Amino acid sequence: MQTIKLHDLYFKPFKSAQQIEAAVTKMALDIAQDLGDEIPVFVGILNGSFMFVSDFVKKYPKSCEVTFIKLASYEGVKSTEDIQRLIGLTQDLTGRTVVILEDIIDSGNTLNEVHRIFKNENVKQLIIATLFFKPEAYKKDFKVHYSGMKISNEFIVGYGLDYNGLGRDLPEVYQIKNTKHMTNLVLFGPPGAGKGTQAEFLKEKYNLVHISTGDVFRFNIKNETALGTLAKSYIDKGQLVPDEVTIDMLEAEVEKNADAKGFIFDGFPRTSAQAASLDKLMTKKDSQINAMIALEVEDETLVQRLLERGKTSGRKDDANEDVIRNRIKVYYTETSILKDFYSEQNKYYGVNGVGSIADITERISAVIDGLK
After folding, report:
1. What is the pLDDT of residue 163?
2. pLDDT for 73 beyond 60
3. Of 38, 86, 23, 315, nearest to 196 (Cα)?
4. For residue 189, which of 8, 295, 315, 332 is within the disulfide window of CB 3.0 to 4.6 Å?
5. The domain spanning residue 43 has which CATH number?
6. 42 and 22, same structural domain?
7. Residue range(s) defining the domain that contains residue 288
């Protein structure tokens, strides 16, 4: 599940299809056990409950009847006070046990109308069952007898629930994102591909914050921050800095730039475990990694670029061809792991890194502009 956009709003993953199925199954079995041999009439509230009712009655293990009524109670993302009965009942329910199947109960305004409608139907008993229940928002005294999931008072879509007509068809449920949309990139490129140059252009063009792991480490160690001191203790022992320390440093950088439109992560992740940790970090920030962009350049071109650069850079690792080739080899080993990780999420983009700086920037920009 990934963040989705419906009309002008973004929604983040909330409940999976598997979680929903488990909740529906439990509700069906619980109600069947409590009703015993009675043949109930299940009444779905359209439009939102159509998917829930369909799955519920298929899982209900005993005989039952099913019908629908339609009420209007939503405009956009707010529950309105004005409820209208649009489609009424067409069968005699005298003496019957009626179970209302609602997709969601929040303010309870719809329930108020449901009780008004059935007050004159002379039913044996009226039972209220809802897949999603928002206790924080509920304002009525009517009892909710069964609820599949109690959730916070945030707007959700999917599994029959919509936002201005969109989202009902989704098999999962998504929750509205309260933070603005961000574009977060993992930028990769072999030594000599011009990754640093492109990062500078992209951060200016898209108003993104460039987070270089190397720069973050150097800053924390130089300024003797708590994380820098901890990282240095591992480095001094010749040990790798644990992923959690690096992630904590990155999180601190993200926190420093809370109003950023997005981030370019450079030098991290290097492993699938690190990529998973970065995903968790972005989820905590109500965001996600949108793309891994890898600059692709042939090895011989890279070697010649670095040897040429070594004439003026003063870096020893740019002047030794064997060292250069080994650095390139290490890069491919790391990238292949991450390529698989992000490809599974449909987020890997290889970009031709040969040509003028402007041409390469244009190719990367085309990828970014095409992201959802």
Report:
1. 94
2. no
3. 315
4. 295
5. 3.40.50.2020
6. yes
7. 183-369
- The rounded distance, in Å, linking the Cα atoms of 201 and 358 is 9
User: Tell me: the pLDDT tens digits for 225-236?
Assistant: 999 999 999 888
Active site residues: 195, 270, 309, 315, 327
Determine which of 28-37, 158-167, 227-236 has the lowest per-residue pLDDT on average.
227-236
State the pLDDT at residue 348.
94
Q: Whole-model pTM?
A: 0.56
Give dist(CA 247, CA 278) in Å, integer.
7
